[in-house]
Design goal:
heterodimer, A: alpha+beta, Alpha-Beta Plaits, 4-stranded antiparallel β-sheet, 5 helices, 38% helix, B: alpha+beta, Arc Repressor Mutant, subunit A, 5 strands, 28% strand
């Protein structure tokens, strides 16, 4: 990442226009050409510096059921259990964390019934108890990361 | 849940993985879903205004840009003050997510979840201490769970059914 990439990451986390030529507008603010901006975004997406470029939806408002779930997985079984959990399309993210509850994943399904089914399946296939922690209220989502 | 019509849903499905990297991205989306660029832009502006689109822009991989210490800090906060504290903590400049979730005692007594990021653990600990001081006596228990490894990150996606 060079100085222009950092400027792009810092300036383009929010506020991309919904207009005919939004890349040209953003490029003008950064002081580069539209072509260069598009090329740099493509490169940062390719290299994994950016995971995505586009709209972030508040997906709960569009439909579906979402929950955060945690399991206490024995160390010796961890990789095997992670493979089972990751293979499920209902699992959106999965993180290993330092705690007795060491596996944390988000389940995204079409309905609460489907969430219950997915949890039952994970418990059956992994032998681990799933703790389901549905969201009661969201206070804030969406930090800008400075680089 | 908000009622989205078929065109709204098609816009979501066409853009949730990312905007086209072409000079006129909304025109490209319009062509893909069979409507006009103005229709796409008006609808996206509406969804943005309503908060269905949180923001439009770049999503950095926080590990890749140097945020190597990422913690989920949790507190068991008195229900009477959790909403007020949640709003306050969510407004801190270093907090990326702040939620209230169900407790599952005795194993999981915590209700307030705060994601805190830093370049190292000392930085995260300082931020967590700052939050702890704001919560003060309203907290009965507290834990910090550092993330060790991303096992999967597919993102939340709207299921397009048979599309």
């Amino acid at each position: 990442m060079d100085a222009i990439d950092r400027l792009i990451v810092n300036l383009m986390q929010n506020g991309f226009s919904i207009t005919d030529s939004p890349y040209r507008e953003a490029a003008g603010l950064i002081g580069i050409s539209e072509e260069e901006l598009i090329e740099r975004l493509a490169r940062m997406l390719e290299s994994g510096v950016l995971t995505r470029f586009g709209p972030l939806f508040q997906i709960e408002r569009i439909g579906g059921a979402f929950t955060l779930a945690a399991m206490s997985v024995p160390k010796a079984d961890f990789e095997h259990v992670a493979a089972i959990v990751n293979a499920m399309p209902e699992v959106a993210h999965n993180y290993e964390r330092e705690h007795e509850l060491n596996m944390w994943f988000v389940l995204a399904t079409e309905s609460p019934e489907r969430t219950r089914e997915a949890i039952a399946r994970i418990e059956r296939e992994t032998g681990c108890k799933v703790i389901d922690l549905p969201k009661c209220r969201e206070y804030f989502v969406g930090l800008k990361f400075e680089v | 849940m908000d009622r989205l019509d078929d065109i709204d849903r098609r816009i979501v499905l066409a853009t949730q993985a990312g905007l086209p990297l072409t000079p006129h991205p909304y025109h490209a989306v319009a062509e893909q879903i069979g409507t006009t660029p103005d229709e796409v832009m008006h609808r996206m502006q509406r969804m943005h205004k309503e908060g269905i689109i949180r923001r439009i822009g770049a999503v950095p991989n926080h590990y890749a840009i140097g945020y190597r210490a990422n913690a989920m800090a949790v507190w068991d906060v008195d229900d009477a003050c959790v909403d007020e504290l949640g709003m306050l903590i969510g407004s801190l400049p270093f907090v990326s997510h702040c939620y209230r979730r169900m407790r599952r005692p005795p194993l999981w007594p915590y209700s307030l979840f705060v994601m805190v990021h830093g370049t190292n653990r000392a930085e995260v600990e300082e931020k967590v201490a700052h939050i702890g001081a704001l919560i003060g006596a309203a907290a009965r228990a507290h834990a910090v769970l550092y993330s060790k490894r991303i096992l999967k990150k597919a993102g939340l996606r709207l299921n397009g059914g048979n599309e």
